[in-house]
Every structure is written in structure tokens, then in C-alpha cells.
Amino acid sequence: MLKLFSPLPGRARRAVAGLAIAVSAVLGVAAPATAAPHAHVSDTVDITAVEPLTYTIDTHGTLAAGVVHLVFKNAGQAPHQAQLFRLNDGVTFERWQADLHSANPNTALFTDAVPAGGATPVLPGARQDVWDVLQGGTYVVACFVPGPDGTPHIFLGMYKPFDVVGSTGLVSACGRPACPWIQAHDLTYTMPASLVRGTVVRFDDTDAKDVHEVNFGKLLPGKTVDDAKAWFVASAAQPPVNPGPPPFTFAGGHGAEPPGQGGWFQVEADPGQYIAFCLVPDDQTGKPHAAMGMVVGFTII
Length: 301
Prior knowledge:
Layout (H helix, E strand, L loop, with lengths): L40 E10 L3 E5 L7 E9 L5 E8 L5 H8 L5 H5 L2 E10 L4 E8 L2 E6 L16 E6 L16 E5 L2 E3 L3 E2 L4 E6 L6 E8 L5 H11 L12 E10 L4 E5 L5 E6 L17 E6 L1
Parallel strand pairs: 1-3, 9-12, 11-17
Antiparallel strand pairs: 1-2, 3-6, 4-5, 4-7, 6-15, 7-8, 9-10, 12-15, 13-14, 13-16, 16-17
């Protein structure tokens, strides 16, 4: 089973979709979505990050299972994300919360629950639109971005439950013509060489065993994909070294999903040269997948 946190003392732990390796990086700002990715969007949930380190959630009444449009807005004062987890049947939010703050928080996140997509971190004032297939049950939205002392926001109380009612079949095909497709597998991505700004993209974790996410990063002028790969390797070095500033800025993406699952997100980054990368830590080494080579270059036009 994937270990969510590295075996470090105290609260110096890695998170599945956190920004521990680049907390000060500039994140891409997403504009409102212009088109649904599937013909049968069942419902919409508005999730807003606010201070002090919490969320407001508006389900507009009963949130129906199906393809749910998640509108994530960051009204806080620091980068935040909206990573979703679905609690396994029979697990209460109170049990999940107790396990999260126990000696082994992996119990909460990978025994009590499974990753269920969501939105990657965005800057204050930014927005990210995501569409995920949500089955009925209890969900938790959480933020793994670390604070100034390195403690992920989730351990400071930045998580909140919400319920989805009903059931639905899995939706695997994009309902829009020529939907771009990103597949995460074998520590790489299979994806188009270029994406058009404003398009809705399908993301799937097609790996046999590993949880994956997809982050977009815009390469800084003069920087290359190889520069980014070297930076990720240096960031994960033991003993720790100072890798310097990242050679890219964050530009959106889709939250962590278990093998066989996926969702949609809108690309609102400016044209340029980009990398796709995964920050989920490796099961054995604890290193982010990006430090093990899960970095792919592409262009936004």
C-alpha cells in the first residue's frame, strides 16, 4: 500500500498531493470553466478555501452522485488545494478524524478512505474547475500544502466532510468530441504533445498499482525539461540539500486518483512550454514520483 508520509519525526511528513517541495512556487490561476466535459453532469459543489485554514462547502441542497462539477476557489491567504477522499463504507468522519491525528495517519487516508480526485493547489484569489465521478457516500476535502513550519495544512485542521447521495455507474469516456486524454502509468504520462488553452482534459490513472495525480508547471525562460527533472531529484536528496528555486511555476492540474480512476479539469494556463509531473510519494522510497522521472514535457498553445 502506498505510504502517504515519509518516516520522519514529528509532523515532517510528505502528503500525496502536497506542495512540500515547492511551497513558495507561483501557482497558475484558473478561469471559470466554459463547457462541461460530459453530457450528464449530475450536480455542482462549490468548495472555497478560507482562513483560518478551513473550507466552506455549498452543495446547493442534496449533492447527487454522478459526474459532479467541483468549483474550487481559494479565498485564503496562502496556496490551497481541494484533494478529495471518499470514506469507505462503514467508516464515520469521527473515526477518520481520530485516525488522521493518530500515530499512523496513513490509516485515515489509505485504509479508512481512498483518493477521489479534486483540485490541485492554486494561489489566493484563483479558481480551478474539476469534474469527477462521485459515488454516494461521505467525502472529505483536504489541503496538503505545508505551512511556514513545514506542517501540511491537513494536520492544522484544514479538512471538511460532505455527503453525496445515490449511486451511479462509472463514466470512462469523455462526452465531448476529441477530448484530450492524459494517462498516468509506469512513472510517466501518455498525453498529447500540445494542449489548447481553455480545453477540458480527461485525466486517468491507468497504472497497475500506484496512486497518481497530474500537475502542470510552466517552464521559466531558458529552462528545460531536463532542468526540471534535475531539480526534482535534488529536492528529494538525502541528506537534504538546497535545490534552489524551481525552474517552473505551477499551472493547475487534477488531484490524486487510485488506479483505474480519473476525472476532468480545465486548462487555463497561458501558451508556452510546460511539464506534467506527479508529487505523490513512492511506496518504497518516499520520494515524489517526479524525483523518479515522472516528468513529461508538452506545449500549451
